[in-house]
Specification:
mainly alpha; four-stranded mixed sheet; 17 helices; 73% helix; binds zinc ion
Length: 410
């Protein structure tokens, strides 16, 4: 294959993946005005329903605009030899292959971030603000950005530097070393997520005394989950939207409830949501997810190992001096069809886990308060109650409200 052919295959992949996303979004948007299923008729009154339709449409327009803009910029970058320029710039700053690789990715990531920041700012302070969800301030927004950058530089920088170094010392076998590195990294971040990463952005506190705590305690005792592993997080500092999640494993397992969830729901409903999260723990969902994603990482790295030493891929993206970092960019794009399939399979697994967690809540607590809590949470976040089935299959990590309702009622 000539570099030119590979270049056009890469361009075709970029356009095709954009087209598929747009078709899915368009299919989904065609159902925005569908009548609400009768089982969910109590979720919205007429006014709120209209507001939810406006919200869906505003988001769809915004997402189409953002992705079209990014498509144009990406194509311009490819056709104007942007990667060749970034590579030369990086190499003019350092002759060291690892440092040049880090600078190269630094330039690409920083450039992308500068381009996308106005869009995320608009999303938060115009769209979310207009519908009453936003609680963030510009100061907090930019502080989050800054922390995100620092984390990317430190964590991403160390990981990338090690992987390039493995490639230098072991050639084609580098993927095995990289796999071990990513496995250790994934286990540590999964286990200590709540202790290492969350505190950079939020405050977590134990449940405060009172009725709710007593009710949670009696449920937690009945299923053998320790109260000291339940925390409340100050999600309200950024958004009115509510959430809860389970993270970690072993001694570091914990359930985190948003303070917004506690404000929005009745005590029984909060216990039902908590029961759902305990279900994720009891069914080992974190550990299974971790295991599956480790297998996927191994497969991806093995493929990368076959691919990375082929000079044609660096040349295809306009980089004259073949290198690990240039090969990685080309690989990342050509891998998209495979990652599309694996993402789909992961979302199938994720929806299966959600049903299992719902069933666990139903068996160990009750279905009705979980149903009313899901309905309230959908109303408060102006959720789309009539998504297109294909869109759900490909994009949703959770079953739809109607699917969960039917499963809980069954
Ligand atoms: Zn869940």
């Amino acid at each position: 294959m000539t570099p030119q052919l590979v270049f056009y295959i890469i361009i075709a992949f970029i356009i095709l993946s954009f087209a598929i996303d747009q078709i899915l979004d368009w299919l989904n948007a065609k159902h925005f005005d569908d009548p609400i299923p009768k089982e969910l008729s109590d979720v919205y009154d007429a006014d709120t329903y209209r507001k939810s339709q406006d919200y869906k449409k505003a988001n769809a327009r915004f997402s189409a605009l953002t992705s079209s803009f990014m498509l144009v910029v990406t194509l311009l970058f490819f056709f104007a030899d942007g990667f060749g320029f970034a590579d030369q710039l990086a190499r003019s700053l350092s002759n060291n292959e690892i440092v040049a690789g880090l600078l190269f990715f630094g330039i690409i990531i920083l450039g992308t971030d500068i381009l996308t920041t106005p869009f995320s700012y608009y999303k938060t302070f115009v769209i979310e603000e207009r519908f009453g969800f936003n609680k963030s301030t510009p100061a907090l927004f930019f502080m989050d950005k800054l922390k995100g950058w620092l984390m990317t530089i430190i964590v991403g920088g160390v990981l990338l530097a090690l992987v390039i170094w493995f490639y230098q010392i072991s050639g084609a076998l580098f993927w095995l070393y990289a796999w071990v590195l990513f496995a250790v990294f994934a286990v540590v971040t999964n286990m200590f997520y709540a202790r290492l990463i969350v505190p950079l952005f939020n405050k977590q506190t134990p449940l405060s005394e009172g009725d709710l705590r007593t009710k949670i305690e009696s449920y937690a005792n009945s299923v053998g989950f320790k109260l000291k592993n339940i925390f409340v997080i100050d999600g309200s500092k950024r958004s009115t939207k509510a959430n809860a999640y389970f993270s970690g494993f072993g001694s570091e397992k914990r359930i985190t409830l948003y303070d917004t969830l506690i404000n929005d729901l009745e005590d029984e409903e909060i216990v039902a949501v908590l029961a759902h999260e305990v279900g994720h723990y009891r069914k080992n969902h974190i550990i299974i997810n971790l295991f599956v994603s480790l297998l996927l990482t191994g497969f991806t790295l093995w493929l990368l190992g076959l691919f990375i030493s082929q000079e044609v891929f660096a040349l295809a993206i306009g980089v004259d001096q073949p290198s690990f970092h240039a090969g990685l960019i080309a690989f990342g794009i050509l891998y998209a069809p495979i990652s599309g399939i694996t993402d789909f399979l992961m979302s199938v697994l994720s929806r299966k886990f959600e049903y299992q967690a719902d069933n666990y809540a139903k068996e160990t607590y009750a279905a009705q308060p979980l149903i009313t809590s899901l309905k309230k949470l959908s109303r408060n976040s102006l959720s789309n109650l009539t998504p297109h089935p294909l869109y759900v299959k490909l994009h949703y990590s959770h079953p739809t409200l109607l699917q969960r309702y039917k499963n809980l009622k069954a």
